[in-house]
Structure formats: structure tokens, C-alpha cells
Description:
This protein is an alpha/beta fold. It has one domain (26-323): Aldolase class I (TIM Barrel, Alpha-Beta Barrel), CATH 3.20.20.70. Helix content is 39%, strand content 19%. α2 (57-69) crosses α3 and α4 (141-158) packs across α5. It is globular and about 70 Å long. The site of ligand PBG has 12 residues, from α6.
Amino acid sequence: MYPLRRNRRLRSSEAIRSLVRETIVTPNDFLVPLFVVEGKGIKEEIPSMPNYYRYSLDLLSEEVKELWSLGLKSVLLFVKVPDNLKDNTGKEALNPEGLMQRAVTTVKNAVPEMLVMTDVALDPYSSYGHDGIVSEGKIINDATTAVLAEMSLSHAKAGADFVAPSDMMDGRILEIRSLFEDEGFHDTGIMSYSAKYASAFYGPFRDALDSAPGFGDKKTYQMDFGNREEAIKETCMDIEEGADIVMVKPGLCYLDIVRDVRNAVDVPVAVYQVSGEYAMLKAAAEKGWLDHDAVMLEQVTAMKRAGAHIIASYFAKDVVRLIS
Ligand code: PBG
């Protein structure tokens, strides 16, 4: 009771504040998304994601070496697929010599200890820009999960440590886990995008991969942003089906979901601070309206405080430089 307890004593200097701080971000918290393109010597900036790039495989090697030297030990790979290889079957996604498969090998050759996760969804490969196979204007669930399992197996064979299905089809985790077990990939993990919302924050990412839906939206498979309890149902089902790590996405607007999920499950919880969140802060900072580094650190700390064990973030490098 006041004045016996004066809370400001614990805030009176940086020394005492850092002694009693509950949440501290470290390089170990981050998973670094990387965009990969065909070609040589390419490091092209994504217009709606300032200071974020697409890399050809040769420069991807350099980038992952730098990440490793900064203490960033996990990457999440996305590929930009040439238009002429896109179709409605995901055929190119299964190509053992495809860009994703070569990207996995490239990272493993450059930094063998790096943890490599791969995005599993059909949108970068789809002539319709949807995460699944399309028939009569609908995204067909079970035909899609069969391809996603084959795609995951192909990534595992290329050397991926984890696959990260981001498609939100029903039953895909079970389908992938079963195929992995049948094929002897017992040690390949699954990080499931379990509570992934249909969000307007993905815009810059779709620019980065040229993967925006050609018709309609993703609301028949990604979650409605008005829903909270449904996130627990989705997440628990993915765990029953064999997910090793679960994810909430996007980040900042969904920290209530991160905390709910963290309280409900006993597997590691990831959060994805998505492209639109990155773009918002970059734009405000460019205008001089926000202090970039201070806001960035506050945001990622909030994600960890909300309960995330893992933060997938385009800010990972910036954060690590700031805190080291
Ligand atoms: C594709 C995928 C998306 C993101 C990750 N995987 C886009 C989408 O679902 O439309 C978004 C990531 C971001 O915005 O940073 N399945």
C-alpha cells in the first residue's frame, strides 16, 4: 500500500529497469523470411518493402552467411516463380530442380547449420494466384492438400528442416505428416500457419512474389478477422494432426490471439509480423512521423510479451543490429 510501495522505484534508472525487465528480445527469437528469384547477381528491392530484397541464388548465399554472422539462425524461404511456369496444378512446385528446391540446397551449402523452413502453398505457382487448385471459381480442398503433401516431401528431400504450410486448407497437416512418416522423413518438422487470417496486411508480400489472387479473395480459406475462439479450434486441430510449431498471422493486430493460443497449447508458438506491418512503419519513418528503431523494438517486444516464442519478421536484421 502507498507509500510503503512506490512502483516508480523500479523505474528510476536504466540499470534497475533492465534488471527487472520481463521480456527481452534476442537474435534467437527470430525467423528471417527471404524472397528468392531466378537469375544471377540479382538483389532487387521490393517497392512496397523498402530495404527488403529479392535475391538470386548466388546472392542468397551471401545473405545467409551475413545472417548467420549476426546470430540469425533460421530462415523461411519464399520463391517468385516465372509466369510461364504457373498453372492450376502446382506442377512446378514438385519439380526437384525447381527454384525452392535449389534455394534449400543453396542455403545448406552456404551455412550448413542454418535452420531452413520452406513456405508450402500454391499461390506463387498458381495461374490464379490462389493457395490451392481452382475449379469452377472455387478452391478445392482435398485435391490441394494432396499436392501440398507432395510439395512438402519435395522440400524435405531437398534438405528442408521444416515445412511451413501457409495455405489454410483443412487436413493438410495430417496429409503432410502421414506422407513424411511413410517416406521416412521422421525428423522433418512442420510449422503450421494455424490461425492465419484473411488480411489486407499481405499486400506488399503479394507485390514481392507477384502472387495476388487473380479473382476474388482468400476468405473461403483464411480466417475471418472477427473471430477469436476459432483460432483455438484451428490451432488445436493442427497440433492433433502433427504440427510441431503453430503460428498466428498477422502479428500486431492479433496479439490477443497469440496470447490465447500460447495459453491453450503446449507447443512453440510463432507469430508473423507481415509485410504490411513492415511497410507501415517504413513509410511512417520515411515521413519522419515515427522513430523507426524505437517503434520496431517496441513492436517485436510486444509480440514476445504476448506469448510468441518465435517471431517471423522482415525487421530481424534491423532488430539484431540495434540490440547488439
Ligand atoms: C502465401 C503467403 C502469404 C504470406 C505468407 N505466405 C500471402 C497470402 O496468404 O496471401 C504473407 C506474408 C506477408 O504478408 O508478409 N500463402
